[in-house]
Amino acid sequence: MKTAFHSRRLMVMALASLSLTGCLLRTATVSPRHFVLTPIPVEEFSDSSNSNLSVEIGFVKLPGYLLRDSIAVRAGPNEIEYLQNALWGERLDQCLERTLTVNLRRLRSANGVDLANLPRDQAAVKVLINIEQFDVDTGGQGVLIARWRIISSDSNKLLNVGNTRLVRTAAAPRGKPEVIATTLSDLTAQLSRDVAESVRESRRP
Predict the structure, then answer these.
(1) Under DSSP, is residue 69 helix (H, G, I), strand (E, B) or coil?
(2) How far apart are the first and last CA of the chain?
């Protein structure tokens, strides 16, 4: 009896030791953070416009490497890293299209063009945007390279084309993914201004 009791006691102690060891070795789980692009602040612009021209973002096309949930960081000319604990709150192409739409609407008075968010069949012109690069490198430099076409919504007639290469430099993003979201938001704001100006040019006689 004593031998059996002693064996059971040793077994309980061994199981308890294994459980404790597992707790000590288990790595702490870090909850991922989720980010979106920030539109241009609405207070920068007045809400008045004498134009009734409306604009629709037809599509925004991004390179495939930017369509992952994790935020991409450019580690070199041919190398991309992904931050496993920093994720986009929605697909980046959808987030960029939504942010551009908001920005263009808020820029309407600044550019003399009413870029109201109307239904697709009521938009006077469409903007089709191809993004070639849209990322931040390990040193904090953000680059946005884009081309766009402006077409008539009713006839698909080409009205204007444009392209831009934008650069913004901020703090190195290592350990600070919010810096990446801020830099890309700033680049999106400037792209919105360039597109709005291109729309205005397309309406000139």
Answers:
(1) coil
(2) 105
Say how far apart CA 162 and CA 129 lie, in whole Å. 9
Distance between CA atoms of residues 5 and 130, nearest Å? 75
Q: How far apart are CA 91 and CA 192, in angstroms?
A: 19
Per-position b or e across 110-143, b if 16+ CB within 10 A of its CB: ebebbbbeeeeeebbbbbbbebebbbbbeebebb
Distance, C-alpha 145 to centroid of its chain: 14
pLDDT in tens, 14-72: 565 655 555 544 555 778 999 999 999 875 554 444 445 688 899 999 999 999 999 99
Beta bridge partners of 146: 131, 164
CA distance linking residue 35 with residue 188, whole number of Å: 15
Contact 137, 75 (CB under 8 A): yes
Q: How far is CA 75 from the centre of its chain?
A: 18
| Candidate from 35-39, 134-138, 152-156, 167-171 with smallest mean pLDDT | 152-156
pLDDT single digits (tens) 80-97: 999 999 999 999 999 999
Q: Which two tokens stand for residue 133?
A: 């690069």
